[in-house]
Amino acid sequence: MLDKTKRYLVVGLGLLGGKYALELSKAGFHVDGINRSEGHLQFALDHGYIERGKTHDFEDLVREADHIIFGLYPTALIEWFRTYSPLLKPGCIFTDVSGVKTGLVEPVQALCPAGVEFIASHPMAGRETSSVEHAAEVNFAPANFIITPTGKNTPEAIAWVRELAEVLGFKHICTLTVQEHDRMVGYVSQLCHAIAVSLMCANDNTSLCEYTGDSFRDLTRIARINDKMWAELFLWNRDNLISEIDQFDAALGALRSALAAGDREKLEEMFRLSTQRRAAFDKKLPE
To answer: What confidence score (pLDDT) does residue 110 get?
Structure first.
């Protein structure tokens, strides 16, 4: 079990960073926070998400941390680590919440001081809302938690992040390589957001709310999107995402061709395949 005498530091009290802080504090851990916004930091302090928090002059919190959770965008994480990694004490093990791992894990691990270890992970529990004020709305239980170890990671660090995920409430925890993770997330997450965004941008939707049905609402729920974060994630994973867009484009093209040709048999075939695959997907969803 995780040692509750250890001090945890959350760098970036956004939606997920805030949820980590909340759940760790509820479980009885000592949690501190660093955040750029004074208002969001104060919210975390006022609601008991963290014991101590700072927006600047936070070197003491960094030096005291036994474990760190980075709730930063990949670029910001690397920049932060270049500046403050010399302050980390030996034995510090830390992780992140980043949605892309290629281009992040290797540079950060290379920057780690002696005795400090980065074990990357990804809680796939984001929402269309953002900021620590909405962190309590996040439900980790049905979400997937993915650990992406490399050859530089020790069994102790992998065990720590797995136990962390369990304390946070994740029921499904799995392990992928960095490359496997980014290929997977390009399809099941980023492509879905790309489709939702494209649907909203393809038409002036100002009057649709007056007569639309569940289909449009369900398909475009995630189109209300954090522009800065998702632009960065898309660009960091551009090769995988472009490949997935091309694959989707081919499937949509096949449907269009069947429609143009009046090929009812082909349309019904695609609908049956879609139904079968969704049914198989539903059976495997965690309860």
So the answer is: 96
Kindly state the DSSP code that residue 112 receives in the 8-state scheme: P
Per-residue pLDDT tens over the stretch 138-179: 999 999 999 999 999 999 999 999 999 999 999 999 999 999
Distance CA 25, CA 41 (A): 15
pLDDT at 27: 97
Amino acid at site 274: S
One-letter amino acid for residue 228 of the chain: K
pLDDT digits (tens, 9 = 90+) for 196-231: 999 999 988 777 777 777 888 889 999 998 899 999
SS3 content of the chain, % helix, strand, coil (to 5): 55, 15, 30
Q: 14: phi > 0 → left, psi -120 to 50 → alpha, else beta; which?
A: beta
Parent domain of 47 = 7-176
Q: Which residue has the tokens 């990671």?
A: 153
Kindly state the DSSP code that residue 282 receives in the 8-state scheme.
H
* CA–CA dist 34, 124 (Å, integer): 22
Residue 285 has pLDDT above 70, yes or no: no
| 96 contacts 148 by C-beta, under 8 angstroms | no
We report the CATH number of the domain holding residue 246 as 1.10.3660.10
255 CB-contact burial (10 Å; exposed 0-12 / middle 13-18 / buried 19+): middle
Total of domains in the chain: 2
